[in-house]
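Help! Submission page says 'invalid entity' but I think these are all valid:
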Amino acid sequence: MENRMSAPLWLTWLDLFGTVVFAITGVLAADGKHLDMFGVIVLAFVTAVGGGTIRDCVMGLTPVFWVTDAHYLVLTLVAALVTFFFARIADIPRRMLMVADAVGLAVFAVVGAQKAISMDVAAPVVVFMGVMTAVVGGMIRDLLVGEIPLVLRREIYATAAMAGALVHMSLYGLTGRFELSALVAILVAFSLRMAAMVTNTSLPTFRRRRPR
Amino acid sequence: MENRMSAPLWLTWLDLFGTVVFAITGVLAADGKHLDMFGVIVLAFVTAVGGGTIRDCVMGLTPVFWVTDAHYLVLTLVAALVTFFFARIADIPRRMLMVADAVGLAVFAVVGAQKAISMDVAAPVVVFMGVMTAVVGGMIRDLLVGEIPLVLRREIYATAAMAGALVHMSLYGLTGRFELSALVAILVAFSLRMAAMVTNTSLPTFRRRRPR
Amino acid sequence: MENRMSAPLWLTWLDLFGTVVFAITGVLAADGKHLDMFGVIVLAFVTAVGGGTIRDCVMGLTPVFWVTDAHYLVLTLVAALVTFFFARIADIPRRMLMVADAVGLAVFAVVGAQKAISMDVAAPVVVFMGVMTAVVGGMIRDLLVGEIPLVLRREIYATAAMAGALVHMSLYGLTGRFELSALVAILVAFSLRMAAMVTNTSLPTFRRRRPR
């Protein structure tokens, strides 16, 4: 939540938490890719703020959030460095990280949707901005390490972000109560993501009928 | 053509047609890449609006066109979903798609050039914006599925877009008649692309002299 | 240096020199990738102006520099074409190119930092903008030809840019003398990069402790 004045404190904290978690997943994506410390920091950065950056650029909200509020930059840097050195000496449990990542996903979807709502754009654009904020960072991260973005083929991931953005937009439109809507939406997106992970559910994949 | 008021109706329709065609090529690029439904929608979206988005961002025309006019988003989504399911049951003739793609290419080049003209930029920038609008979406699509962008090595493709932008800029500058210039330019770009496809003509490729 | 009025002439020349050098490295990256002439021009362009473009977009400095000043576009185009044909008949010494690239790196870092300073952003953002201007173009170039960006794993490269941005910001803040600060900063960044190349020094690479 870039506009810290208007957001409730718990959402600000969750947003910073999401930023840190995404930065950590960026560092860990460097595994086995022979990246140096700088490369790892770049990965952390694009993962943590990539989605929000493109969101702000296409909506004309410039300078983008991390230019006006240097906390995001500094926090990402610290998280990346700590992870860089910590990962050498200790094992970071994958399961814990996946849960934290689901929190980040849910929060970013709501933050992105709310930014779009405050710009007074059409409903499909609001949902789209929520999803973009949540998933684009991870997509660029995967591109940079030479992988087809996981989010394009992973079990319910962007779909959870979409649900979160949709719920927040609807509830906020109906009730006008920001805190309540954001909380419910985050819980919905988080639960959906967790459920998909636990049950290993995926969307159908693309199959093309072969030409004769 | 984002500014629907000033554009002739036929150009608006062609622009929407180009958007749909590009979305379809995005979906089909997912073939064999194990993408899920969401991934396919992302590919459709970046292909259809990627070029125009970067064009608007670098020229400062924000919020970009699909934020202010949600039709593009919805249209792309519908085209992607229809293609996703249709491609499972029927074969989409490659030849037909290539012709439709050539129409999209030609229209996007003119639309991009016109936007730049209305911003009063220098002539090389106008041509560049036409090309960018026409080819960048396809480039990002190819990156996302792990390929070196086809447009970087394919027979006369960007060159056709360049010709279209050049013709439109020149004619419009000379005559001041938008409709006429756009129509001629689209025909030139389309014909050039078709001719290149039929005759399989390419630009020279890069060869480097080996160091001793 | 986009704002040519306020920059000393030597810095403007160095900036154009950096643009040309980066364009050349873009062309040479096409080696062995079966790109056509257009693809090579695209690579030259993204390498030469990619970093500055994203910098201007995220800071809201739009239209970005090469839209308002077409010299960058034309210069890149000429450099790309000359290199394209020259590389067929003559060998371009790799060593000479590496030195020229180090000049470009140093200049772009200072130019980027100065732009951020003129926007009155926080110190970490200034340094970040310097690094981004210097390295992002090369990163996109590598992505487009299907490589994990070299800058993410190469010996001290971005680190030299960071040093340059840091020195310029500090000196300029202390003395208020732009020319002096820029000159010293460029020398520092250039020397650091040269030293790293000659001694083959790298930052530590990422290693993850294996889960049991």
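Support: the input was valid. A stray whitespace character was the problem, and the output above is from the cleaned input. Chain B is about 70% helix and 0% strand.
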